[in-house]
Amino acid sequence: MTQPTKGIPPEMRPLIDDLQYRQELHDRIFHSDIYTLAKPERLKHLVLHQCKYI
């Protein structure tokens, strides 16, 4: 299994972990309709959302 933080300097990992934690809290609170979707549906939503801005 690959590590998502591979290549990130060790001193940056606490910052990345904190940002991921805060993003998850935000998503749970403000986007519960999306957060509770199954992973494939959530990914589809995010991809389509990105396409809107491209």
Structure at a glance:
By secondary structure, this protein is mainly alpha-helical.
Beta strands, count: 0
Stretches with pLDDT under 50, minimum 5 residues: none
Fraction in beta strands: under 5%
Query: Helical residue percent?
Result: 55-70%
The helix tally amounts to 3
Q: Please compute the radius of gyration using only Cα atoms.
A: 14 Å
Mean pLDDT across residues: 89
Q: Helices and strands: which structural class?
A: mainly alpha
Give the SSE order as H and E letters: HHH
Would you write up a description of this structure?
The chain has three helices and no strands. With 54 residues, the protein is an all-alpha fold. It has one domain (10-53). The N and C termini lie far apart (31 Å).
Ordered list of secondary-structure elements with their pairings:
Blueprint: H1 13-30, H2 32-35, H3 39-53
Which key features would you list for this structure?
54 residues; mainly alpha; 69% helix
